[in-house]
Every structure is written in C-alpha cells, then in structure tokens.
Amino acid sequence: MTIPIAGTSAWVLMVIGWYIIRFPFERRAKRKKVAATRRGGAETLRMLVSFSGLGLVPGLYAATGFPALADYQPSIVQFVLGAAVGVLSLTLFRLTHKALGKMWSVSLDLREKHKLITTGIYAKVRHPMYSAFWSLALAQALLLPNWIAGLAGLVGFGTLFFLRVGPEEEMMEAAFGEEYRQYCTRTARIIPGIY
C-alpha cells in the first residue's frame, strides 16, 4: 500500500469514527426541546462552508482523486503525524460529547434547562469541540496528499470558527451571566494555556 492510499484510507476511517461518535448524540438531541437558538441564514452558510471543507471536497478527492493536479508525494512522517492527530481529534470529539451529554447541539442552541458544563474536558478549555475540529482539519491536511483537498478543512472549518465563536460566547454570556464570565477567566478557548 502506498503512503497516499494509506493516508486517504486513514482519513476515511477517521470520518467514519467521527460519525459513529456523533450519531447517538444527534438522535438524542432531536428529542430535547430547544429553548434559545441563533440559527439562521448566517449560521447555515457557516455550516455549509465548514462541511464543504471537511466533507465534500475531501470526500470527492477520496472517491475520485479529483483534483489530481494538486497531488504531491507525502512522506511517511507526514502520514504518521496525520494518523496521530486523527486519533487525538477522535479522542477530543468523544470526550466533548461525553461531557456535554444532553446539552449537546450541532448548532448555536440552548436546550430547555440548559446547564453550563465546566467539568471533564470543559475544565481545561471552553470549546473543546472546536479543538477537536481543528485537529480533524489538521489531520486531513496531513493525511490527504493534495493541496486543495488536504487544506480545504483548515479553510472551511477556520471560516466557521472565526465567524461563530464570538456569537456563541455572547449567547452563553447572555444565558449564564457572571457564571460564564468567571468560567472564561479560568479557561482558554481551544488550547489550554495558549488560546
């Protein structure tokens, strides 16, 4: 098996693992009522851009090899790093879902009787789900040996992150007030002790 095939296969397995982790939470979330939301046209556009970068573009590449003109020959070190970052992203993703439980939502929603989660992985960072997605996008860049498909996740998710994190934090502050402000003073956004 060549390194490009191994990398693409690892990316596919990572996406499958991602879906397996998320599926039961998504099913449960549909049964819980939403008390407040910031969904709308802007959020739909952000989600579409992110999905294009993390799903559509790399999925097209994995299935067809398009756009082959942007291919390059990866190293074994790049593949190993990509696989390790992929495992990290799945671990963060699982820990985040486990900590959130019934409070989980795919979008900017607050559930009925929503509680501010500050335990588990949330004791270290405010947005570990975003940390998981950044890790996924980095793993994609390392595993898919194509300048377009590989980097599409960083661009797509980066767009969602930088346009969404502010409104999300405003929504949490409006809902939880001083409790959320205090939580912000003791946690970083996505990388403990850094940012």
Automatic annotation (TrEMBL):
Keywords: Membrane, Transmembrane, Transmembrane helix
A GO term, aspect molecular function: protein C-terminal S-isoprenylcysteine carboxyl O-methyltransferase activity
GO cellular component, one term: membrane
Major localization class: membrane
Membrane-traversing stretches: 6-25, 45-64, 76-95, 143-163
Protein's cellular compartments: Membrane
Domain of life per record: Bacteria
InterPro entries membership: ICMT_MeTrfase, Isoprenylcys_mtase, Metal_cation-efflux_comp
Membrane topology, as annotated: Multi-pass membrane protein
Pfam families: ICMT
PANTHER family per record: BLL3993 PROTEIN
Protein name as catalogued: Isoprenylcysteine carboxyl methyltransferase
Organism per entry: Fulvimarina pelagi HTCC2506
